[in-house]
Amino acid sequence: MSLFNAKIQDVFNEPACQKNQGKDAKARNKGCSKPLTPGAAAGGCAFDGAKIVLQPITDVAHLIHAPLACEGNSWDNRGTASSGPTLWRTSFTTDLTELDVVMGQGERKLFKAIREIKEAYAPPAIFVYSACVTALIGDDIEAVCKRAAEKFGLPVVPVNAPGLVGSKNLGNKLAGEALLDHVIGTVEPDDAGPYDINILGEFNLSGEFWLVKPLLDRLGIRVRASIPGDARYLDVASAHRARATMMVCSTALINLARKMEERWDIPLFEGSFYGITDTSEALRQIAGLLVKKGADPELLDRTETLIAEEEAIGWKKLEAYRRRLQGKRVLLNTGGVKSWSVVHALMEIGIEIVGTSVKKSTVEDKERLKQILKDENHMFESLAPRELYAMLSEHKADIMLSGGRTQFIALKAKIPWLDINQERQHPYAGYDGMVELVRQIDLAIHNPIWCQVREPAPWDCQPAVKDELPSTKSETATVHAFKKFAGTTADDFGEC
């Protein structure tokens, strides 16, 4: 078995996965691999998943060794944000052509591209990604990266996650393996302390991490590395000296968290920063782990004081929306940590959950959801677009929260929709983020446009039009109906 195949098999055999732990030894050895089916990577291939995990490391040059289309389709695929470096916003690719493939010039072109990036930008490191074409023709990016690192005196990290090997989630894990093999543990910090933590699976979408970091700063807790949200290469390289790890999205980087615990004795827990209660619980668990690892026990008291202050402010702001949203029905078509964390957050203010997708959720996610909902009938693996449209068009929900790919189903059903996936424009993490999420839901549900689009069109109101047909031949019945409709006001549509 090749080293790359062994790496993939190792990822599939993840011991920390509850599903794997429930298998017998023979089944566990086979892992979770299964043959790919046409369209299986429609939600993102392994290359896409690796890019999602690593591109938010903002001061690194990300070089795609592939034809131009691979970088064009994957670049800027997440709404992540940086508080400083902008090099990650520059797109680098070797732009392989048919001639390069036929003449075997791929590896030579890659080495030249690394040299040009080093001379022009002098980054602290260069990440090199393989793709389907370069994997199929056999370009050895690991050998090229090793030679380039020796020649140019900077880390050149190979990321072996071509799209053809599997899904986006597999790519997430392979990116974590690349960090373990080539980055984490390569730099020894001179300022390590008892209040250092890592946060894994936080992507800083729309700047969400910036709503959480001030809370940790007030407690004197330093985020040694946020992987990958708003990260820096040296911070990631020294992440092995943190005292605790919080996993925000376990399906993405559970292998990274487990192996960091095994190698460097960094305890971990999975938590969420969505919702008032979950944010408070995450802060408590972080403080508790740090105290167990040697931090001053006084940290626990300071944490409770901060939680009491922030919860009082948050609940006071949410009271303004409780009366308007009490009993409103929400359908969640997402997955992962949001399948249970957002559900819990919304139920805190009286919103009813009519259904939530658990397609990308772990066994632990599903167990948490069962405890929250008390009814498994509200959980579904996936809904076909036809079924989703039928559910919405029958007004079984007042709003749908999902990603951009299903927004048009809601809009066709004339139901409000709010984006809570990576393309969103507003941060929803932490205490302030919860208030913002509820505010956006309130704005979407009570937008008067929904009452208007549900009204029959003027040309469908035949009796009313026939009663007032124009007397002149110069004005048609349709034009007359439009003029009459244009003179209506919002009051004519009744209560929204």
Descriptive terms for the model:
single chain; 496 residues; alpha/beta; Rossmann fold; 4 domains; 4-stranded parallel beta sheet; 48% helix; 11% strand; disordered C terminus
Question: How many angstroms does the end-to-end distance come to?
Answer: 64 Å
Please give the number of β-strands.
Answer: 13
Strand order of the largest sheet: 11-10-9-12-13
Helical segment tally? 23
- Structure classification: alpha/beta
Name the average pLDDT: 83
Q: Domain count, please report it.
A: 4
CATH architecture annotation name of the largest domain: 3-Layer(aba) Sandwich
Question: At the first level of CATH, what is the class of the largest domain?
Answer: Alpha Beta
The CATH topology assignment of the largest domain is Rossmann fold
Helix content percent band: 40-55%
Shape: globular
CATH superfamily of the largest domain: Nitrogenase molybdenum iron protein domain
